[in-house]
Amino acid sequence: MNNIKQIKEQGYVVIPEGINKEEINMVRAFYKKTAKKSNLSTLLPTDILKYPDVFHVILKDKVVTAIKEIFGRNFSLFPNFTIRESVYIPWHNDAYFLPDEVINPEAPLQFMQCAIYLQDNDPEHGGGITLIPFSHRLDQTTVKSMLDTPQAYEKIIMSKAGDLILWDNRITHKSSYPDKAPDNTKLALQWTVSASERHNEPYLQYLRDRAQRSMHVSDYLPKSPRSYFADMPNVLYPNSFQPDSLNIMKQQNIQFIGL
Ligand SMILES: O=C(O)CCC(=O)C(=O)O
């Protein structure tokens, strides 16, 4: 199945080897150093921008080409790029706050969540994402009733370290929970891309609001990502971006939409 058909029908796509081993090690080393300095387990976007080798992973040709192919057009970035350590988030949906014309099951894809997990995923050790395929095309009442017996519908995405996973932000998903203690720290590089022309403002308002109040299951977890949301207004275009990053974004026609 091609990627366009796959995301339309199943709500997600896995692009194998989005990044290579060297890049995985580079991002892991950056996380370790930066998390130690900032004492945060969800890194700040402004810290990522200071280290273009890491930010440029998001701008890699292979990554950008896959996103453009799926959207069928150019896309925009929000200031919500981060690296997160060992988040384990229960079942949730990241689109229900958007207007009905974006989230209704017939609407075309407008927002995609992107994740590169820096370790393999498997049912024993976790390390990636589990989702309900096709749930982006179901109404909220149906999905809610499916969550009474999620084992009947869920799919553990058996991704390998460095794979790029893209999902329609209407899909219902959770972290893959480990049965056993993981071999190494679970890390993920995560960001959102938009092909929307009319609905970016409600998305941005949601990002602003999450700096002020708890609105998402992950806001209630012991390691709240509040400082990450509070940092987003500090990402200013073009001043927060390095000249190299601005050049790649220009060449790739990637627009940045700040708060
Ligand atoms: O990375 C994970 O474990 C879960 C990510 C997630 O649920 C999200 O980004 O909404």
From TrEMBL:
One of its GO terms (molecular function) is iron ion binding. Keywords: Dioxygenase, Oxidoreductase. It comes from the Bacteria. It holds the Pfam family PhyH. SUPFAM superfamilies: Clavaminate synthase-like. Its cofactor is Fe(2+). This is Phytanoyl-CoA dioxygenase. It comes from Xenorhabdus khoisanae.
